[in-house]
Amino acid sequence: MLEQLGLPIVTMDEPAIRAATEPVARRGGIHNSGYERQSRDFYATPSRVTEALLKHVKFRGPVWEPCCGDGAMSTVLSAHGHEVVSTDIADRGFGTPGVDFLACREVPGNCRSIVTNPPYGDTGSPTGQSKSSVAMLDFLQHAMTLTESIQGQLALLVRLQWIAGKRAAQTMSAGPFSAVIVLTKRIQWFDLGDQTKTAQHHHAWVVFDHTHPTGQPPAMLFV
Ligand SMILES: C[S@@+](CC[C@H](N)C(=O)[O-])C[C@H]1O[C@@H](n2cnc3c(N)ncnc32)[C@H](O)[C@@H]1O
Predict the structure, then answer these.
(1) Domain with 126 in it: what CATH number?
(2) Ligand 1 centroid distance, CA of 39 (Å)
(3) What is the number of domains present in the chain?
(4) Has residue 5 been placed in a domain?
(5) Which stretches within the chain are classed as H helix?
(6) Mutational pocket test of ligand 1: of 123, 157, 183, the residue with most ligand atoms within 8 Å of the beta carbon
(7) Is 21 a pocket residue for ligand 1 (Cβ < 6 Å)?
C-alpha cells in the first residue's frame, strides 16, 4: 500500500502503530480546559475551517493530508473535487496508518500540495517531537522542504499566537509565505454539551506557495 502511494519510507510495524494510536493521559488536559489530552494530539477539525481555506486558496494537483486523523479535512478536500492522499502515524480508521510524516523524504505519488492540521505537541514520532512550539517549527520546516522539491503549496492550521513567536516568524518569512487566513471564530474542538468550555485559542491557516513571487508579502485575510 505504501509503495502504491509512492512513499519510500520507514513503515511502522503493528506495535508501533498501536503505540502511536493509544491515548496519552495527561493531568489537566489540553491547556487546562478540562479535556483529557487526546491520543497523539488528535483533534478533528470542524469542516467550516477547511471550507474557509478552500474559499481563498486554489490548490494545484492532488493534495496530501499527512496527519489525516479520522479524515475530517480529507473528506472536505475530496468533496471539493481534490484527489487526496491521506496518511497518519496512528490508526484512526481512515487513510493509511503507520506513516510518520517526519520520516517521509518525498511527497507521495503526484501530490502537489500538503494540507493539514498538524499535531501541536508530543506525537510519539521516533524522530522526536516534544514542546509544541518546537514541534510545530520542525513540522513546518520539514513540510517546507518537501513542498519545495515539487514547487508545491503548503497550508497548515496553527494557533494564531504561534505565528508571533520569533523563530516561527523568521522561518515563515524565509519561506514562500503567500497568505495568512485568520479564523475570527474560535474553534470548538469538542462538544461536551453543558460542560463545553469556551475555546482559548484563535487559529489561522498559514499558506506557502513555492511559486509565490520573491519579495511579495503574504496576503492577510479574515474569515
Ligand atoms: C490535530 S490532529 C488533526 C487530524 C486531522 N488533520 C484533522 O484536522 O481533523 C493531528 C493528527 O496528527 C497525527 N500525527 C501526529 N504525529 C504525526 C506524525 N509524526 N506523522 C503523521 N501523523 C502524525 C495524529 O495521529 C493526529 O491524528
Answers:
(1) 3.40.50.150
(2) 10
(3) 1
(4) no
(5) 14-21, 47-56, 72-79, 132-148, 160-163, 166-174
(6) 123
(7) no
Q: For residue 9, tell me if it sits in a domain.
A: no
Beta strands in 29-126, from DSSP E residues, in sequence order: 63-65, 84-86, 113-116
Mean pLDDT of 174-192: 92
**Is 6 a domain residue?**
no
Ordered strands of the 177-182 beta sheet: 84-86, 63-65, 113-116, 153-159, 203-209, 177-182, 219-222
CA–centroid distance, 90 to ligand 1, in Å, is: 8
Instruction: Say how many Å lie between the CA of residue 16 and the centre of ligand 1.
Output: 15
Write down the pTM of the prediction.
Answer: 0.87
Which of 39, 45, 88, 101 to mutate to test ligand 1, by most ligand atoms within 8 A of the CB atom? 88
- Domain, as residue range, for 132: 14-222
Q: Is residue 182 pLDDT above 50, yes or no?
A: yes
- Cell, residue 180: 495568512
| Residue 64 clears pLDDT 90, i.e. is over it | yes
